[in-house]
Design goal:
Elements (H helix, E strand, L loop, with lengths): L40 E2 L2 E2 L16 E8 L4 H33 L1 H13 L9 H4 L2 H37 L2 E8 L1
Antiparallel strand pairs: 1-2, 3-4
Helix pairs in contact: 1-4
């Protein structure tokens, strides 16, 4: 094989410096980085400073987009997240039931409706059905707590089962495709 490029100068004689090296003209003196402004600063103010435009500056923002596919949902992570979310929902349910009961009790709903029901169901020997003792706050909170615990178990189990079913169906059809966009 013969070299058809002809005589080549050694590498050191090329005109540009390697990346990270200073040019040969600045080897003797201190390094001065390139300035964004012309002129010198005096006391925080620049004397006659003129901003140099950047080269290659874009005038319109660019939006990057990426198409992604959710190919698999990890059932263990789905179970953990759904467990925590269902516990939060259960706590919100108990608090909401307590607040609703207190508001209805303060408005006198239980005494009014309870009086009407006891008159309708009562006879000469008995007073009838007592709604206020049946719908007391401890009984309502206990019932709501039982419902919240059942809800936590069911939501966690259904979300985990849903992750398994999604993984099976994603194996057949490829999963859900998402398009994500990033604004700069």
């Amino acid at each position: 094989m013969t070299d058809t490029r002809g005589q080549q100068p050694p590498y050191e004689t090329y005109g540009s410096a390697l990346p990270g090296e200073r040019p040969a003209a600045q080897q003797g003196g201190p390094y001065h980085p390139p300035r964004a402004y012309d002129g010198h600063t005096q006391g925080g103010q620049s004397a006659g400073a003129v901003r140099r435009p950047r080269t290659g500056a874009r005038t319109t923002p660019r939006t990057r987009k990426a198409r992604l596919r959710v190919a698999k949902a990890d059932p263990w992570s789905v179970m953990k997240v759904s467990f925590l979310l269902s516990i939060a929902l259960g706590i919100c349910t108990v608090v909401a039931a307590a607040v609703l009961w207190m508001v209805m009790d303060a408005m006198g709903v239980f005494s009014t409706v309870g009086g009407t029901i006891s008159e309708a169901t009562g006879s000469n020997e008995s007073n009838g059905f007592d709604l206020q003792s049946f719908l007391s706050l401890p009984r309502v909170l206990m019932f709501t707590s039982v419902i919240a615990v059942i809800d936590v178990v069911l939501m966690t189990a259904l979300a985990t089962l849903g992750a398994f079913i999604y993984n099976l169906s994603a194996g057949f059809v490829g999963g859900v495709e998402l398009t994500l966009a990033e604004d700069e």
